[in-house]
Amino acid sequence: MSDTATIKMRSWLFAPGDSEKKMAKAIASDADIALLDLEDSVVPERKAEARKMVADAIASAPDKRRIWVRVNPLSGDWTKGDLEAVIAAGPGGVFLPKAEGGHDVTTLDTMITPLEQAAGIEAGSTKVAALVTETAAAMFTTGTYDGAPRLAAMSWGAEDLSSELGASEQRGADGEYTHVFEMARSLCLLGAIKAGVTPIETVQPEFRDLEALEARARSVRAQGFRGMLAIHPAQIAPINAAFTPSGEELAHARAIVQAFADNPTAGALQLDGNMIDRPHLALAQRLLAEAGE
């Protein structure tokens, strides 16, 4: 049974669905979610074999809730077969690439529901995450995911978008994304918050530069993201560290909550020489809630 309320979503580690070794490594890792891939990392000739391998990996996993599957996009011919192969194994969720609006998640829901029923799985327990900026059309629909069934998270991607745009450059000389890709990141974040689901940062391809990875992860967390996609097991520890509140952060949040509890009619207060107001209280309460306090 899937219950995303009890599953952290800081780190999502991709593993190709046609590699038993890499899937086993992802499942055994400290990633919050092992993301078994049936899309880009599997060539058409190996799709059928990969489906069975992914289903077997899910079935033997000690905690199925943290095993998710990236299926192929609805715009192609593979999604139905992917779902038929893996849903009965009971994955925690399905990762939908190239989503172009909340209606695509609704379509996916109608495909998953009878498969859950046939397998005796609780209706709606298989959650969905959507990649929402991989096409030009998708960029205009990131605010349409409110109320989409099963939706638990939204992420964005630069690779497929750059391919569609014909863009040879995603980042400038400083390593930062150029304008259109920063816009994609922002639209994903805004759309996820609007929909009330978890915003997830995209991958960092330079998997050996862990210092830069952690710096970027901390930066996007400060912007509002709650987790990040990964392509290599070495990236998991820096991502988990970046998206885990420090003891100092938690102590400060508790102090803010206590200050307003002691002054319930105050709209603004001073704390440690700084002015705090009700938005600071809301942020502190959210941080503590996400930390399980």
From TrEMBL:
Mg(2+) binds at E134, D160. GO terms for biological process: oxaloacetate metabolic process. The keyword Ubl conjugation does not apply. Keywords: Lyase, Magnesium, Metal-binding. Substrate binds at R70, E134. The keyword Nucleotide-binding does not apply. Belongs to the HpcH/HpaI aldolase family. This is Citrate lyase.
